[in-house]
Amino acid sequence: MQKSAAAASTTSAALTVESLAPYALWTLLAAGLGELFLYRMLSRVGVHIPKEGLVLDVYSSLVRTGSFAFNVSSVAVFLALGLLAYACARRWGSRQPLRAATPALIAAFAAVSLLFAFVDEGESAKLAYGAFSAGLMIALAAIAWTDGRSDHYRKATVGLIVLAYLFAQYYTLSNQAYRALDLTAAPPQTARALEMAELLVVATALLAFWRWSGVRAGLNWRPSPVQLGVAGLLIFAFLGAYRGEDSSTAAILSLWTVGLTLYLPLPVYALALGLYGAALVACLGRARRDPAFMPDAVALGLLPVAGLTLDLTYQHLVAIVALLLLVQPSLAPSDAQDAVLAA
Amino acid sequence: MTRVSPRVAGLALLAGVLILAAALTQLDLRLASSQAVTLAAKEADGDVPLDDPVARVWDSAEPVEIPLSAQNVATPQGGGSIRAVTVRALNDGERIFFRLEWADATQDVSAFAAEDFRDAAAIQFPASGVATLPSFCMGQADGRVNIWQWKADWQADIDRGFVNVPEAYPNAVSDDYPFKDEELFYPGRAAGNLLSQTERKTPVENLVAAGFGTLTTAEEQPVAGKGIWQNGKWYVLFAREMKAGGDYTPFKPGQTTNVAFAVWDGAAGERDGLKSVSQFADLKVEGVARAEGKSGAVVWVFVMAGVVIVFMGMAYARLRAGQREQ
Questions:
Q1: Most C-beta atoms within 10 A of its C-beta, which of B1, B43, B91, B205?
Q2: What residue ranges do the domains of chain B occupy?
Q3: Domain spanning B38-162+199-285 has what CATH number?
Q4: Taking chain A (343 residues) in consecutive chunks of 10 residues, what is each chunk's mean pLDDT?
Q5: Chain B 114-153, CB below 8 Å of chain A: which residues?
Q6: Is A252 an interface residue toward B (CB < 8 Å)?
Q7: Is the CB of B35 less than 8 angstroms away from the CB of A310?
């Protein structure tokens, strides 16, 4: 760990993609979480908060801040994707066709996403875009799985995330495909596919806890007070919001903001949320001490921002950034890679 | 390698992002577009009969399966026995039509006895003049919603006649009421309460709401409908003029708005808040000609292919360069 930190400081004097990426990624994470909490969540939950006078002023200010954070995040995601695609192009080299082509495809995907922000695309364009996104995710999963240096839990996590997105996208893409083909039947099993996607999200949270929380140390593992606090707070907030007299909070947040219907038993979600929070806190703590852990921390933080049902081009981009960071985590100098992989 | 400090360059990048975001905020622009599934209300190929929800004209409508979940928002939370509803929409330039279809093993058409609960289905739209998407949970104070609810017992009242106490309980004994034929003996009916009526024109109630506990029967009841149960499935048709006054959601060709759905299974004890609900989905009302035919798909495939080819060409150049280095 000291080695990687030292390596990071040595190269900090040179202007490289790796030295710029943290600025874009931390900005994206901060703005993404800001828009998630202050814009998407607060503006939706806020309809049930009695508001007048000072409360109304504070509420309005927070929502406006969240709206601005959305714009910051939607700009930063392009920057982050560009830097990551460039870094991947350099690191993956040009010997293997999949690794050589994927950064170019990511850049093309970002370009198409930007184009869509300014044109009124039809259903067939949405279908092509969604298929492009799904193809990229499959390519990233393939790269992760064929990477001999990557650990099994990381590969499994990437696999679960991509599988969850593919199941969720099946609902959207199959409907769009049927429409583009003028088929007047409903695609089969679309609702079941969404349920499967939700199940995979819960499984991903549990696996992320196993991989990143430090629990693999076994009996030597002691959760930090911050981990315990965050996990407890998340579970308490979720269950409290759900079981309280006005239980709209949890339902709206899960259903509308992240895309979960909560069809599984409630404690499963509460446990998954708490454990994921603990993993994220552990990752952020490590990233604070050692920049080599930054990609994992940012990736885990960005996944809830992207949500499950990728209803916006912005969410597609955030999901791709998160996956890229998990697939190619070594933004730290190459000397530090061994330390990262050994962690 | 340049001499610019990474810190300075990073902060400059950050400043650029903030300036761009501020410009977007000022111009009210978003660097994002919706990729969600859209329910299209196509122009109907022929007449849409109001008394036949399974008429052939519906074969030309594109269905969307909308996932449903238990209502977890307001007390009493629950329901969720119906996991999905298949929705089709059409318009004939004057009226808009929706057909909901879902599997239900039992036909529950009575809510007369205390232990009876009817099957039902509802459609919700943002009300007229609502600029931002309301909460899907019955709207909010500054975001009213218009709701159409079809009720199986109202449908049965129309199809088979109103069921009263003697029909529901043929062996019951009651005292004789001297004024039972007078209108004022039934204050609900006399006051025009829709729930108390014995003769119905429509099985669909038109309602407005602005948050929990504010659901109100609308002053006008312009929504027609018809529900039939066939082979373990409900097929329910809703129809209304596209133009509408008051808070009722207006529709016009080319318009995109939002729509959410709810279904109740009476056999599972579902009523009121115990139901299966969806989020808001996009609804597009299409004109005489479809907004986009297959040619649109071809154009977009070419655009994307062009972008991909450019970037892939760059990747190929790198690949060749790498091979030459070896």
A1: B91
A2: 38-162+199-285
A3: 2.60.40.1190
A4: 42 70 94 91 70 80 92 96 90 81 92 87 84 95 86 93 95 88 84 91 94 77 78 76 53 63 81 90 87 91 92 94 87 47 39
A5: 134-137, 140-141, 143
A6: yes
A7: yes
